[in-house]
């Protein structure tokens, strides 16, 4: 189910300008924060506002909707609404992303968070995917909604990140304009000086786009840590992500990089997982561009630090803000570095250093 991030990147570098733009857009805005995800819902105030309009079901003042094609697999809309309402209340003082629209959709829809408008879509898993698919869909909903919370609070708290967002949108606009010009000239078979200038500009923008993608890539791993952490905090189940995503018909081998077991919050209990992480990390992170793998040790430590206290409600509710502050601090410090810092292969030391820093801060904070 994971979007082939590196394939897109590689394809994009040898594409025509038009397709290049499409791939860039896909890469920078769609694959970043979603990858593995599946169901989502969204909600706001009360769960009493559910109603039917045409064939869609709506709740939470229209923030949450179920596509009629997903109704057979989805739970009652009130269930999703209650989850979101509870999360919105529990994450304070973090801001709830009240602008987020959540759509529960069919299994054919790739579950994702779109950081342009904070919207979330969830593809509901079919019952034969695994025995607890409906419960699993809830977990994926929580994960995707976690992205919306993280993005909302990053924008609110990090001027550096706001700049990065602004830059990305401006670059996308420039690429689009350049792409349209090239298409127009191509149609006119115009190979004049204007064509040469447009091609040179395209090459310049492509280079900037490459740097930008690299800049965002590892940084979006922070997003995934927060989203997975919200699932842990909400469900108190360290294996909730795997239970939502693993295809029981063809489970991956344990301790392998393909195994979702590595993403269990308590997977650090098995020393073989840390060994696999160290041995495979360079390939998985820098060649496969995986967004979950970079901070697996952070997840494992976070679980270890919180597992004995998670059933204390006051402590549990304090975690989203505490974890966010730690991630925000490290994320912001990383943004101060050159985009080159994470783009080359052989940057294992950099990723280990980031894990150590975040783990150090978590130990001080949670
Ligand atoms: Zn995600």
Average pLDDT figure: 79
| Number of helical stretches of at least 4 residues | 11
Q: What small molecules are bound in this structure?
A: zinc ion
| Poorly predicted spans | 1-53
Write down the overall geometry.
Answer: globular
- Please outline the major beta sheet: 6 strands, mixed
- What is the number of beta strands? 6
For the structure shown, list the relevant keywords.
366 residues, alpha/beta, 6-stranded mixed β-sheet, 11 helices, disordered N terminus, binds zinc ion
Mind explaining what this structure looks like?
This protein is of the alpha/beta class and 366 residues long. Among the domains are: 5-32 and 158-212, no CATH class; 33-149, no CATH class. It has 11 helices and 6 strands. The chain has a 6-stranded mixed β-sheet, covered by helices on one side. Helix 9 (296-306) runs parallel beside helix 11 (348-365). The longest helix has 43 residues, at 193-235. The structure holds zinc ion.
């Amino acid at each position: 189910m994971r979007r082939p991030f590196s394939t897109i990147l590689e394809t994009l570098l040898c594409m025509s300008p038009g397709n290049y733009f499409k791939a860039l857009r896909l890469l920078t805005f769609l694959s970043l924060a979603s990858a593995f995800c599946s169901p989502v819902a969204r909600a706001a105030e009360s769960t009493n506002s559910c109603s039917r309009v045409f064939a869609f079901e709506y709740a939470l003042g229209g923030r949450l909707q179920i596509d009629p094609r997903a109704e057979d697999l989805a739970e009652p809309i009130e269930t999703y609404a209650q989850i979101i309402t509870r999360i919105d209340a529990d994450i304070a003082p973090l801001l709830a992303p009240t602008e987020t629209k959540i759509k529960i959709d069919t299994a054919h829809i790739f579950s994702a968070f779109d950081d342009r408008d904070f919207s979330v879509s969830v593809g509901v898993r079919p019952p034969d995917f695994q025995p607890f698919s409906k419960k699993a869909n809830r977990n994926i909903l929580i994960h995707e909604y976690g992205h919306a919370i993280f993005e909302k609070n990053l924008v609110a708290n990090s001027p550096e990140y706001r700049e990065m967002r602004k830059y990305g949108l401006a670059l996308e606009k420039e690429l689009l304009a350049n792409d349209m010009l090239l298409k127009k000239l191509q149609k006119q078979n115009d190979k004049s000086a204007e064509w040469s200038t447009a091609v040179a500009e395209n090459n310049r923008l492509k280079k900037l786009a490459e740097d930008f993608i690299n800049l965002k890539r590892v940084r979006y791993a922070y997003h995934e840590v927060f989203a997975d952490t919200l699932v842990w905090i909400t469900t108190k189940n360290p294996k909730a992500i795997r239970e939502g995503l693993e295809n029981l018909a063809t489970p991956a081998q344990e301790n392998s990089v393909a195994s979702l077991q590595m993403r269990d919050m308590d997977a650090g209990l098995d020393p073989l997982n840390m060994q696999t992480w160290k041995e495979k990390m360079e390939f998985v992170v820098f060649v496969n561009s995986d967004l979950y793998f970079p901070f697996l040790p952070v997840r494992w430590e976070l679980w270890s630090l919180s597992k004995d206290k998670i059933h204390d409600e006051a402590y549990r509710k304090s975690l989203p803000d505490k974890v966010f502050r730690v991630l925000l601090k490290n994320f912001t410090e990383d943004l101060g570095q050159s985009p080159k810092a994470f783009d080359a292969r052989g940057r294992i030391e950099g990723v280990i250093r980031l894990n150590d820093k975040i783990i150090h801060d978590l130990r001080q904070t949670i």
